[in-house]
């Protein structure tokens, strides 16, 4: 299997910045005749391979093991053992141990509907958090030029709120803050019908939510469903203290989101079981 020209360390850096699921395979031991030496590395994604452990059946088996774990969302470390004359059927006849480290990518997807002043400040503030960001707006030329420079950010122009909501990943955190109240209401209606968003926030005043709540109730949403909507956003942390500047609203909104995203963070990975290491060394 041919590898891409990009080196493993360049690919690792890029994939981690972009939040793409990937695995790092490191040859940690060798005995007898082996294609590569300890310390050789390769990076594996669902559809690409960067660098090589020497080729042959054992490399293919390493790639398959990594992709199985990526497909099933299994993060952390595992140790793969290869007898090149046995399990891998290669003629060199040596023995290799490969450490697989699987990185599941961005643990949180934040979806913003609306590229106005508050939306722009939220995107800027969320950039260092490592979240996957999906940014929707129905207007032409709504997104700022600097959006192209942010890793893990995808901008989408959409004029059909229902279709846009239908395409969202399950478990997304959604913020609705468009330039149009009717569009906001359609988006909240569609998001509540999906019933699989991790959280749902709506920008606006208490009177705006009272109006929306009445209309959404008439549309068939019960009290339990409507209680999932946070409006105004940022109020559970004490709000902005009356400061209505976009930056202040964005700060309060992200402070509100952080505890809501805690369950999606990756579990603490503390390496391999000590018994595995004892058997290895």
UniProtKB/TrEMBL annotation:
InterPro entries: MoCofactor_Util/Proc, NAD(P)-bd_dom_sf, Xanthine_DH_XdhC, XdhC_CoxI, XdhC_Rossmann_dom. It comes from the Bacteria. It holds the Pfam family XdhC_C. Residues 110-257 form the XdhC Rossmann domain. Residues 16-76 form the XdhC- CoxI domain. This is Xanthine dehydrogenase accessory protein XdhC. It comes from Halomonas alimentaria.
